[in-house]
Amino acid sequence: MKDIVFRFSLIIVLALVALGIISPKLLNELSTTIHSSIINNFGWGYLLAGFIFLVFCILLAFSRYGSIKLGKDDDQPEYSYFGWFSMLFAAGMGIGLIFWGVSEPLSHFANPPEQIAGGTGAAASFAMRYSFFHWGLQPWAIYIVMSLSIAYFSFRRGMPPLISSCFYPLLGEKIYTWPGYIIDILAVFATIFGIATSLGLGALQINSGLEHVYGLPGTTTSTMVIIAVVTVLFLISSSTGLDKGIQLLSKSNMMLAAILLVFMLIVGPTSYILNVFTSTLGEYANDLLKMSLEVNPFQGYEWTKSWTLFYWAWWIAWSPFVGLFVARISRGRTIKEFILGALLVPTLLTFFWFSIFGGSALFLQLEQGVQVAQAATSDVSTALFKVFSYYPLGDVMSTVAILLLIVFFVTSADSATFVLGMMTSHGSMSPPLSKKMVWGFTQSAVAAILLLSGGLEALQKMAIAAALPFALVMILLCYNLLVALNQEFKGQYYINKNDNISNDIKM
Amino acid sequence: MFQRVVMPLELNEPFSEIKLRCQFVNQLNVKNIYLLHITSENDNTTRSKQQLDDIAMILKHLGFNVQTEVRGGQPATGICQTAKEKQSFIYIPGKRKNLLSATLLGSTTNDVLRLTTIPVLVHKARPALKDTIKNILYATDFKDAAQRALPYVKDLACAGGKLNVLHVGKRAADPFSEQHRRKNVMDKIKLLTKDLETHFSWVEGKEDVGTPSNYIAKYSEEIQADVIVLGRYNKGLTQKILGSTAERISGKVHSSILLIP
User: Fold this and answer.
1) Longest C-alpha distance within chain B, in Å?
2) Beta strands B66-72 and B227-231: pairing type?
3) CATH 3.40.50.620, chain B: domain bounds
4) Which residues of chain B does A496 touch, with a Cβ-Cβ cutoff of 8 Å?
5) CB contact under 8 A, B185 and A507
6) What mean pLDDT do residues A291-312 have?
7) In chain B, what residues touch A157 (CB-CB under 8 Å)?
8) Which domains does chain A have, with CATH numbers?
């Protein structure tokens, strides 16, 4: 059958959406049961896997394989460092960081695990440390495992840029049959649901921002209009191709994000923010090992389940999309350069982001006596705008933040459309426009319909459920990658470059 | 190659079986047989020596060139040590142990396979003691260890003997490299079989991908091989943890195993 991955993925997605429309309650019950049983039984596995991936990345970067190129020996990086980092950051964190930049530290501050008293200095320190942790090295290590494998097998080994391609050492020709299809269908499934929920939540936050700043009605209709406008924007961007559209959008994101960051640093409590950054960086470095393996089985397990384990599952579910996209933009870089660049630069930028926005929010709460934490926990989508309103030119910052949200929204949707097109076109680097359009409309429709029917969170849980098999897939990816790198190091491979055999195979 | 052999005895074997074992090794052109008994702390060494000498005397009357030795210590170490001193290969009758005792106590056969630095023939269900070795499976990875085993394969050749050459490799990491790897392997097998055709009346080469121990065990049962000839590569963390291929297949097959370290 032709286009098996495309057809089956579409059928599964449409079936679940149909269930979400007909009986959101049933979908919710179903997804809640699957989600909670996975988190309850395998939560520790996510934490352990995240730590293993981080160690794997660091060891690999400094290993004998570090100098191997993700491409042919004479390939050069396609994008400048600025373009590369911008796209990495936009795909990896994007909307989520704006959504949680203020809300997460405030939520942890107000509702930490039971062994810490909420609303205290210790809670603030904990809140910042764990915000760093949830958005720090581990998420990027997860993305790197995925993207490095795809980039290596596709650009170095000449295979289609698909997750199933990375399984050739283990599965051989079976990657072209059902075992391979299942891996790719699972990737499409996680991507479409991940992006749809992310877009749905993003649209809600844009709506909250517009309501807060301009007094526009925060109705469902206006959220639908936002989704429709953004859909038109990302489909236009998508049709212009990766080089122009996404790169331009990502660079604009970085500019806007930098403006917002610097502006807030200046108008906000500058020295307080820098103190928060320095202090939290130290605590993070000091406690990284402890946090990496801290499941809190005796006290605070519920908190760990609803935050850390949720995040780890989410990053894993999100990794096929980010992995494929990041692989696509990383051709020509060495393994060491790729790992260190993708691990350190976006992480550092994220730390700045949390220190500036989270630090400013905690400053209001702890030093100025403004009760922002309670407001943030009651409605996370408005927290950022509420904090802005207490600082000079708050409306301007809110407008820039809304603009940033829209651009991130468009970038994420555009990248996802491209990646979904790739996944369902046998890994074609230039997926047909028709497929990109189908996925573009599908992801927006899924976000809109489930926002209306109330099934969006259920969908997010389904995406997280898909993370469990993917955690296993990713551990096997590490194995496959090591096998391939080891073979290359021993000279047991041929480079398929104009049929020039560059290396005699040794048995 | 097979001029001298160390044959460990527990001294509870029926004489008829010992005689058959000696007849079996004689077909390999063995000139000297060293009967060895390893005593434990509680054993009466003098009595054991006497028993062994009695067996040797009868065997000498039957025309075998036999010498005896009794030593103490750990059986596998003693066997390997004696074989090294006598510059002989080791002949061990493979005994089936139940799973529990094999897991908990291990087996002398596996210990010898692990410790030996000289060739070992582990005689299992095939071929029967009265039969000759006719169907040989030579497992090769084309590395030095397998090359070292090749003269022994030629030495085992007999009239009407069949030889199966098997290579079990690791799949290359991409289809293009895999295609070349396979071609390369087939070329090497062709060369090897051509060389061996002068010694055997029937030679066939085969290659596959997978875990060597599993595949060799499976294939040897499939073709009902009499003996599997293997070289042993003495390095690697996997071997230290999991044991060599020979150790791993020894419990799975009915074929005898000739290990060349």
Assistant:
1) 67
2) unpaired
3) 4-123, 135-260
4) 174, 176
5) yes
6) 90
7) 173-174, 176-177
8) 4-489 (1.20.1740.10)
Position A419 confidence tier, pLDDT thresholds 50, 70, 90:
confident
Distance of residue A497 Cα from the nearest chain B Cα, in angstroms = 11
CATH of B4-123, one of 2.60.40.1180, 3.40.50.300, 3.40.50.620, 2.50.20.20: 3.40.50.620
B52 CB contacts (<8 Å, ≥6 apart)?
Answer: B9, B11, B35, B37, B68, B69, B70
The per-residue pLDDT for A502 is 37
A352 neighbors A261 (Cβ within 8 angstroms):
yes
Tell me what pLDDT residue B164 has.
Answer: 96
Q: At what angle are helices A178-214 and A394-423 packed, to 10 degrees?
A: 160
Residue of A nearest to B186 (CA): A507
Instruction: Tell me the pLDDT tens digit for each residue of A202-211.
Output: 788 788 888 8
Give the nearest chain B residue to A157 (CA atoms): B174
Which positions in chain A have a beta carbon within 8 angstroms of at least one beta carbon in chain B?
Answer: 153, 157-159, 168-169, 172-173, 480, 483-484, 487-488, 492-494, 496, 501, 505, 507
| % of chain A beyond a pLDDT of 70 | 95
User: For B214-230, how does the pLDDT look when each residue is reduced to its tens digit (9 = 90+)?
Assistant: 999 999 999 999 999 99
**Domain B135-260 class, CATH top level:** alpha beta
pLDDT tens by residue, B53-86: 999 999 999 888 999 999 888 889 999 999 999 9
**How many Cβ atoms from other residues are within 10 Å of residue A432's Cβ?**
12
CB contact under 8 A, B173 and A505: no
User: How many Å lie between the alpha carbon of A486 and the closest alpha carbon of chain B?
Assistant: 10
Contact A137, A343 (CB under 8 A): yes
Helices within B116-155 (DSSP H only): 144-155
- B190 neighbourhood in chain A, CB within 8 Å: none
**Residue A485 scores a pLDDT above 60:** yes
B interface test, pick of A162, A174, A492 with most B CB neighbours within 10 Å: A492
